[in-house]
Design a protein that fits this description.
By secondary structure, the protein is α+β, with helices and mostly antiparallel strands. The protein has one domain (3-287). It is built from 13 helices and six strands. The protein has helices at residues 5-12, 17-28, 45-51, 58-74, 84-87, 93-108, 113-128, 175-181, 202-224, 228-231, 235-244, 250-269, 280-287; strands at residues 3-4, 134-139, 149-155, 159-163, 171-174, 197-199. Strands 1-5-4-3-2-6 form a six-stranded antiparallel beta sheet. Strand 3 (149-155) and strand 4 form a beta hairpin. Helix 2 (17-28) runs antiparallel to helix 7, helix 4 (58-74) packs antiparallel against helix 11 (235-244) and helix 6 (93-108) packs across helix 7 (113-128). The longest helix is centred in the C-terminal third of the chain and has 23 residues, at 202-224.
């Protein structure tokens, strides 16, 4: 049987019950958009209640996430060659991928497996850094057939455990148990998935602490600048929404884009702050779309 996350942490370090509660509360603010493992008996009951609530609109959340991904891709957040000052030293693409997914979830509470696994790894590393426990952010399937990312917790002597907050943020699975009870629930990906692994370290945590405030300002400015009329003219965005539900009419898609844009702006309204003087130039540069 899975182990409660709070009990797992308490086995290795004391005094972090409130921090674990705060992590779970963060995941419970909104359910995951992806629901591949909802058929598991271990699927989180809180997620189920949220998903079945009359006001829950999965497509609305999907459009908001698509808008965040659009901003990430169109700005210089992923492109160190054009904006080397943002990340500083050269980092591997997989590390930039993890940092971006963690930062967007940290800011917006919006995301699926990569966002949640990355955020969990950073928070749990802070609790376990003085223990022999290691944390890795990694895909569950080395063959590239399953597109799903989790947090690996453990070491060679203890063995490895899986923390999958997309399925249930309350529990930790033994590796073999996860492999037999959860992994069969995932459908094979249409496209081959490139497997990756990022190991948590002090350097990664320090880098995050430096760049997150800058990322936050950039994203809030770009979201505030979103224009629904312009978004309706973006064929890539429209195509990505059509893929989520091919039965949607053009009018329904247009409505989803407008509602998603407004919802994302509302999500950020209380977070908006004036840009600090020291980051003004960086934010302005990174916020502008890349030239074709």
């Amino acid at each position: 049987m899975p182990i409660l996350l709070k009990e797992f942490i308490a086995t290795h370090v004391e005094g972090h019950g409130l921090a674990v509660d705060a992590l779970i509360e963060k995941f419970h603010r909104e359910p995951p958009i992806a629901q591949d493992t909802i058929g598991s008996p271990f699927y989180d009951e809180h997620y189920k209640q949220q998903i079945t609530h009359p006001d829950y609109n999965r497509l609305n959340y999907s459009v908001q996430k698509a808008l965040v991904e659009k901003i990430n891709l169109e700005t210089r957040l992923y492109n160190q060659s054009r904006q080397p000052g943002f990340f500083g030293q050269s980092l591997e693409p997989k590390v930039i991928h993890v940092l971006n997914h963690c930062m967007s979830y940290d800011l917006l509470d919006l995301g699926n497996c990569s966002n949640r696994a990355a955020f969990a790894a950073f928070k749990l590393y802070d609790l376990l850094k003085d223990t022999p426990i290691k944390l890795h952010i990694k895909g569950v399937d080395n063959s590239g057939n399953i597109d799903h990312v989790v947090t690996y917790i453990g070491n060679s002597s203890l063995g490895w455990f899986i923390y999958d907050p997309l399925t249930n943020p309350l529990i930790v699975f033994a590796f073999d148990e996860y492999k037999t009870t959860i992994m069969p629930l995932f459908k094979s990906s249409i496209r081959k998935v490139r497997s990756f692994e990022v190991k948590m370290s002090d350097m990664l945590v320090e880098k995050y602490a430096i760049i997150y405030p800058q990322y936050r300002e950039i994203m809030l400015k770009r979201i505030d600048d979103l224009c629904a009329i312009d978004l309706l003219k973006d064929p890539n965005l429209i195509s990505s929404i059509e893929e989520k539900d091919q039965s949607l009419t053009k009018e329904q898609i247009n409505k989803l884009v407008i509602i998603g844009c407004l919802a994302l702006k509302a999500r950020c309204a209380d977070l908006m702050q004036p840009t600090s003087q020291e980051n003004t130039d960086l934010v302005a540069a990174a916020s502008s779309p890349l030239k074709k």
